[in-house]
Amino acid sequence: MHLPIVEAKAKLSELVRRAKAGEEIVLTRHGEAEVRLVPVEKKRKPTREEKLALLEQLRGAAKVRGPYDGSDAAHSADFLYDEDGLPA
């Protein structure tokens, strides 16, 4: 349904009800479509299984990449310097 905004003002409650029921409501200004009324999708809480799967994905993504493997914090930046201690 296409409806001018000026007419929609008086029918807002009805238009919201119809949009929530699945009908496409397009509001127009000077014959041009301006906005569309759509229902808000309610977000559901993720299941325990979905949370665990996400946690496993994050654990896999957290692996350290690059010259430092995380084994010794005291030497974590050694690759930045040469054997004389100067920047490489």
Keywords:
single chain; 88 residues; alpha+beta; YefM-like fold; 3-stranded mixed sheet
Account of the 3D structure:
The chain has a domain at 2-37: YefM-like fold. The mean pLDDT is 85. The chain is of the alpha+beta class and 88 residues long. The protein has helices spanning 5-8, 12-20, 48-61, and strands at residues 2-4, 25-29, 32-37. The chain has 3 helices and 3 strands. A 3-stranded mixed β-sheet has the order 1-2-3. A hairpin with a 2-residue loop joins strand 2 (25-29) and strand 3 (32-37).
The residue ranges in which pLDDT falls below 50 over 5 or more consecutive positions are none
> Compute the gyration radius: what is it?
29 Å
Number of strands: 3
**What is the CATH domain class of one domain?**
Alpha Beta
Work out the helicity level: 25-40%
Compute the average pLDDT: 85
How are the strands of the biggest sheet laid out side by side? 1-2-3
CATH topology name of one domain, in short, is: YefM-like fold
- The first-to-last residue Cα distance is 68 Å
Under the CATH scheme, the architecture of one domain is 3-Layer(aba) Sandwich
Our estimate of the beta-strand percent is: 15-25%
Q: Describe the biggest sheet? A: 3 strands, mixed
User: Globular, elongated, flat, extended or rod-shaped: what is the shape?
Assistant: elongated
Task: Find the structural class using helix and strand composition.
Answer: alpha+beta
Number of helices: 3
- Fourth CATH level, the homologous superfamily of one domain: YefM-like domain
Strand/helix succession: EHHEEH
Short description:
By secondary structure, the protein is α+β, with helices and mostly antiparallel strands. 31% of the residues lie in helices and 16% in strands.
